[in-house]
Please model this.
Amino acid sequence: MEYVKKCDKCQMFVEAPKAPSEHLHLIASPWPFQEWGVDILGPFSVAPKQLKFLIVVVDYFTKWVETEPVATITVERVKRFFWRKIICRFGIPMEIVSDKGTQFASQVTADFCKGLQIKQSFTSIEHLQSNGQAEVANKVILRGLRKRLEEAKGRWAEELPQVLWLYHTTPHSRTNEIPFPLTFDTEVVIPVEIGEPSPRTTLFEPGENEEELRANLDML
Model:
């Protein structure tokens, strides 16, 4: 905390409270990757390949985030994002939550979701908290980008993987859980374990591991 208080960038980009606190509006997701919230960030300063927007999607259960920098926001790009970043990696979800932007509410997107039996839910001005998961993720990503790109703003797309790494390996403020192990059911190996080896990395023996795996299979 003392470091944060003395960090100029942390103080410059910290969000000042703008409204009184409210009760949290929780959305129950019974299992991982069942429900995703999607949103658009940008426009940012133009990056190489004319990238200036960021599609962001967050899983309501694990808080795992997937993103894709794009030059323009079109229905086809959003549909391709759903296919590549959600379905091909995590399976077909039951529901996708978004605002009523043209890229989400188009007939093409509706037909795509209907063909895979994905329910589309849209937020309204009166119920913006219903897509609060994506909003929170967006704020974290944007805050991280701002801190890292105070000067070289056109490099935001290059810095994005590091920002996501930090997000995925840090306890979430609302759940106190880390997205990586919730998503992959294993602890992430972080750089400090390479410089200062941990018991997990130093005691690992491929031969013993294979024997233990065979023993486990025999007990099934």
In short: Residues 169 and 190 are 9 Å apart (CA to CA). The radius of gyration is 20 Å.
